[in-house]
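Agenda item 2: IDC complex prediction
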Amino acid sequence: MDRLLGLGRWIRKAAVMAAAAFLFLAVPLQAGMVWAREGTEDGGAYTGGYKAHGALQVQGADLVDAKGEKFQLYGMSTHGIAWFPQYVNKEAFKTLRDDWKSNCVRLALYTDEYNGYCSGGNQEELKKLVEDGVSYATELGMYVIVDWHVLNDRNPNVHKEEAQRFFDEMAEKWKNQENVLYEICNEPNSGATWEEIKSYADQIIPVIRKHDSDAVIIVGTPAWSQDVEQALNDPLQYGNVMYALHFYAGTHTEWLRDRAEACIRQGLPLFISEFGMCDASGNGANNFEQAGKWMELIETYHLSYCCWNLANKNETSSVLKPECTKISGWDEADLSEAGKWIRQQFRGENRRGFIR
Ligand code: IDC
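Presented output:
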């Protein structure tokens, strides 16, 4: 009996040792494999994205990361994804992350013009493109903005029901993700009032929040997202909301910077979800002097900013040369003047001593 008991003890001891050995070897091995896998995906020491910074929040005028530290999103906006679907690809976003050093992509889904989502575009295909874009950004550790690109339709209420359906479906998909931001109306314009935009936002934000209670939501402002002071005077009553300020450096200069600065100082959270270095038509000459002044404001207040546009359209604001047909892995020679400038900006090469 004693011998049998002794044997039992040995078996138990051996089992405990085997379990310990398993924990000691297998768990780190598995963790190591995960790390290695992420290491390749994330370009090794990639620390600019959501895996390091987590869910973002709005605190006063600032966007902060999960640790409460001021945080900037910066990167490219696509052109309309119905016009240029080819740039919604993982390698393109990887180039923007690893070579351009950006941490965010904005997916522009036009609602009205050029096969817009609400004007005859193939909704299933467009949704698939948005979903693919979000997946690529997610796999790469980047943040991503889903932009409901109101422009020709002028007033976001024109397609409000479509917007509700769209955001309901999308937010449900990404409810557990920390890296998706929603921009619910790019640029109301031509007389669309803040009151009307506010009423629209009051009917869209709850649709998103039903699924994702703390997603950051960007709301466009009157006059092509320039009249931000109207939002300051009558803000929305939700947390984690930011207001869009858009500029085109050839058109919008000191006066718009002054307005932006005054609003920020009074606590309005602004997000420059679209800007260009040329004029407001998306064409004309680049004005890098004015663009540089905008960058100073951006750095002073840690504003987030997305540049219009990732395409090879024959217009000044496109960052690829018209003759460039590559859809990722661009060399400097593939970039337009705008492309070269903004890439350097993202890489911190023409930042006059600002620290990232
Ligand atoms: C422009 C594109 C251009 C396209 C046009 C459609 O650059 O190729 O033909 O839209 O109307 C905005 C808008 C953005 C504009 C851009 C330049 O958000 O959609 O893109 N712009 O005009 N606001 C100010 C400028």
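Discussion summary: The radius of gyration is 24 Å.
Owner for follow-up: CH.
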